[in-house]
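_Backbone structure tokens_
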Amino acid sequence: MNRTKANLSNEYPGVYKAVKKDGTVYYRASFTYKNKHISLGSFDNPDDAHRVYTLANLLVSSSFMHVEDYTSDQLIPFDKWVVIINFRDNDIYFTTPIYMRKNYFSYYLSPTEELKFSIDDLFYYSSHKIMKRGGHLFVADYGMQVSIVSRYGIRPYAVEGRDYIHLNGDNSDYRYENIKVDNIYNGVRLCHKGHKTMYQAVIHIRGNYVIGYFDDAIKAAIAYNKAIDVLNTNGLKKAYAQNYIESISASAYADIYSAITIPDKIRSYRPTSQNNQ
């Protein structure tokens, strides 16, 4: 936290000297563009802070520098580079690294990682920073880590290529028209038996138990629900998430439910106290 702050504009325009509570001196850089005051970061010395200030002014005063021109030796953070160039070109200031395109926008994770989104998602990602860990993309929302694919009705732990696909083959393109969801149900997997596409219903108890193979996802989802009911009746009190199916009537659901046979290995499963933990 700053304890003091002094303007060094005579020698270093756009640079402010600041002192932390522990006495450490550092330097903040900022500039004003289109009546917007933009912070450029903190630095250990005034020369670096002034270089960033000079570069930021160069970015907004010329059109020959673009997002793709960023290099690793730049003192200005890449996120801020994208923010400034987008503001210059599109007259919209975002705090996240968004660049507006025609009919969609790009969200830059790094100089080499560009995600594409539909305009419908602009408000959300202008206030939610995308993070990447272990190949998974997520945002922090109300204190929780939320996968970005959940906005398409894709379940947690869904597998790309099995449960959903990018229609144009570009797995960085998250525009709605490019996402095809093959499976929206818990415990259901798209698979192939011979040359036939099937839906496998699987439930995890202590390991995966196959409930059966079905010719459509709804039947497999109902089989999963029935397996949960059987296990609950047998005393297994795990918090399984049942599938909510709104595309068929209650009577059609009941007919499918009653026709499904749950395998003996699931029907005969009896929990121990350890299983219920």
